[in-house]
Amino acid sequence: ADVRGGEPFLDGCRVGAVWGTHWHGSLESDGFRRRFLVEVARAAGRRFVPAPDTSFGVLREEQLDRLGDLVEEHADTDALWGLIEGGAPRGLPFVPPGAPALGAGAPESRGAAPDPAPQSPEGLEVSRPETQGKAPRPQGPDGADVHVDEEAL
């Protein structure tokens, strides 16, 4: 790495008390992390003694197991598998990238659309051609027309 104004450190550099590197996962190495934290403490005028038996891999595996258990207990895993294997259901409204965000005071989404159709954010009108008496002009994956009110942006 080409370092200007600092000393090289793991394909990055150190400038004073700031350390930077591009090595993703470098702190996952138990030996490196222990030595690094001892050095950081020394540079700060402190003494640090790392626990010799802490294993990042074991702790990460325990966290992933807990996360998996929570998903299994509290999520509809059959529905999730359906989305993974078959994609989103047909007929969902299409909101284009860059559509305006919900404004202040607008109702927040709670993950379930009210019947018969979800409310659109202010300035964005999503209409279905069949409800307008027009021939379909598919633009979104569900065949909905999407109109953006430029003045609301």
What does this structure look like?
The protein is an alpha+beta fold and 153 residues long. The protein has three domains: 1-54, no CATH class; 56-86; 119-153, no CATH class. It contains four helices and five strands; from the N terminus they run βββαααβαβ. The strands form two sheets. It has a three-stranded antiparallel beta sheet, with no helix packed on it. The longest helix has 19 residues, at 56-74. The radius of gyration is 26 Å and the shape is flat. This is Cobyric acid synthase. Residues 144-153 have a biased composition (Basic and acidic residues). Residues 86-153 are annotated as: Disordered.
Instruction: Give the number of DSSP strands.
Output: 5
User: Which whole number gives the mean pLDDT?
Assistant: 76
Bulk shape: flat
Q: Strand order across the biggest sheet? A: 1-2-3
Q: Could you list the spans in which at least 5 consecutive residues all have pLDDT below 50?
A: 134-142
What is the strand content? 5-15%
Largest sheet: 3 strands, antiparallel
The separation of the N and C termini measures 44 Å
Radius of gyration: 26 Å
Order of helices and strands: EEEHHHEHE
Q: Report helical residue fraction.
A: 25-40%
- How many independent structural domains? 3
Describe the oligomeric state of these chains in a short phrase: single chain
* Estimated structural class: alpha+beta
Number of helices: 4
Organism: Streptomyces globisporus
Biased composition (Basic and acidic residues): 144-153
Region (Disordered): 86-153
Protein name: Cobyric acid synthase
